Amino acid sequence: MGTTERRQREKEQRKTAIIDAAERLFFSRRYEDVSMDDIAREVELNKATIYLYFKNKETLFATIVLRGVEILKEKYLACMGTPAPGIVKVALMGQAYYRFSQEYPEYLRLIHFYGSERFSGENPYTAEIGKGYGTCRRILRDAVQKGIDDGTIRDDLDPFLTSMYLMTSFMGILSMENRWKLAIEAEGFSYEQFAGEFFRFIMPALSPGEGSHRMDVRDFAAFGFHVTEPPAQEKKKRPEP
How many whole angstroms separate alpha carbon 88 and alpha carbon 78? Predict the structure, then answer.
């Protein structure tokens, strides 16, 4: 390896170390409670060095948000690649979003916080985050179109609008305030039950009338659909590079 290649590799390793250090802090604290000085101490670098890689704290925060969005996108792509009817792919994507919230709760928290519109649209990562979420929504739209084509989803629905209804519903359920979760529990239901029942609620609205292609949500289990399956004891962290 030549000198130029070695320096480039060291530069990328240093950048990754900065992001990893910032991620640990943002995962454990509120955005307002993390400073560039804190990040510099965490990564054991001079603050001026960090500014060589990131313009400001917002840009660094957005980089971490983008990591989470990329994980979600990969989950959606895996669902789309599953050999299953279109309506099942849609359900699997909803399950994937739910599983993402269980496996990577801090990424989800950061993603929703970034979407609060408090951040600058001039941040170069904002477009990348929007592009990543847009890709997820387009994958969901393609799953809806697949269902229309194979007859498992009504053909009078618009794929784009349907994907928007579903995506915003997923986001709303998974960003629910604790007071609403307490209200659900007060009626004798768990939050996991509530999330799972969403699919029994919404699938009839997507399904065609009686016919050979109509599926019951209970049939989805054959394709790995178990949205209320308890998460693993140890929560997953960002995949190793």
Answer: 13
Say which DSSP state 56 is in. S
Q: How far apart are CA 129 and CA 39, in angstroms?
A: 22
Give the mean pLDDT of 49-78: 92
CA-to-CA distance for 205 and 187, rounded, in angstroms?
25
Q: How far apart are CA 64 and CA 218, in angstroms?
A: 37
> CA separation (Å) from 172 to 135, 168, 176, 180?
19, 6, 6, 11
Percent pLDDT > 90 in the chain is 53
The conformation of residue 54, written as its DSSP 8-state character, comes to -
Residue type, position 160, single letter: F
Question: CA 217 to CA 221: how far, in whole Å?
Answer: 8
CA 36 to CA 193: how far, in whole Å?
A: 41
Distances in Å between the Cα of 48 and the Cα atoms of 36, 41, 126, 154, 203 are: 10, 12, 24, 57, 53
- High-pLDDT (> 70) share of the chain, %: 89
Q: Can you count the helices (H) and strands (E) in the chain?
A: 10, 0
Cα distance between the two ends of the chain: 20
CA angle (149 as vertex; 146, 154 as ends), nearest 5? 95
Q: Which residues contact 80 (CB under 8 A, 6 or more apart)?
A: 89, 93, 139, 142, 143
All residues at 6 or more sequence positions from 128 whose CB lies less than 8 Å from its CB, including other chains:
62, 66
Of 147 and 172, more confident: 147
